[in-house]
Amino acid sequence: DPGNAAITPGQALRAFELARDLDPATAARAARRALRSPDLHEAKRARLQSWIDEHPDAGAPAAEAAPRPVPAPSSVPLPVPPAAAFGADGVVELTRFARAKLIEARPVRLDEAGLRLALEGGREARVTWSRIEAVAVAIVADVAAVPILLIDLLANWNASEAEELKGVRLRSDQYDPRALLGTDGDARRAFGSLAGRLLQATRGQPLPSAEQALGNPFARFERLADYQRTVLDVAE
């Protein structure tokens, strides 16, 4: 909404991320709104401007003038861009997060308020649903001896500026989803049901997509680094 002057750069960035594959015109408006902020990280500024340049048909409406980058004062050093990952074609891919800090845990119990977890060393923890901003689900081959399903509950996915992506990682080789859900039957289908339950409870963004997060089908990656860069937008 061009009349909404209260939107923050972080909200504009999330709108861009959500809309770029579904509604290029909205994505372009959101990108231009984020570019108006003088505090926007230079790496994110370059990424947004590059996307706009690659999608000239998704131009801004006539009533919304394209923003001019605001130069940083000479006395203030520019922030260091996050690490860049090189794709197979040699193109630099800028990422939102420099690294991931995901605590591996075993889910013990689900209830209306959150998820009870068993941590390393016999410790227990609890994560409330309201703290989870996104749920990422994918099969990754090189984490264990056989491919396993990862469910990552991400706590700061909507952050406009963050060095670390934080959250909890659930590994399919460490628990049985049927015990959590109180059901029988096929384990693979139960993992899809568990992901659906987590998405419903947290109202988080499904990653890589709503269909893949629910196992229709699950996305698969040979390397953890590829999953984290492609789905979680993490450099390391």
Characterization of the model:
- The protein is α/β, with parallel strands linked by helices and 236 residues long.
- It contains 7 helices and 10 strands.
- Strands 3, 4, 5, 6, 7, 8, 9 and 10 form an 8-stranded mixed β-sheet that branches.
- The longest helix is centred in the C-terminal third of the chain and has 16 residues, at 187-202.
Layout of helices and strands:
Layout: H1 9-19, H2 24-35, H3 42-54, E1 84-86, E2 92-94, E3 99-110, E4 114-118, E5 124-128, E6 134-140, E7 148-154, E8 164-171, H4 177-181, H5 187-202, E9 205-207, H6 210-213, E10 220-221, H7 224-230
Parallel strand pairs: 3-8, 6-9, 6-10
Antiparallel strand pairs: 1-2, 3-4, 4-5, 6-7, 7-8
Helix pairs in contact: 1-2, 2-3
Compact description:
With 236 residues, this protein is α/β, with parallel strands linked by helices. The chain is built from 7 helices and 10 strands.
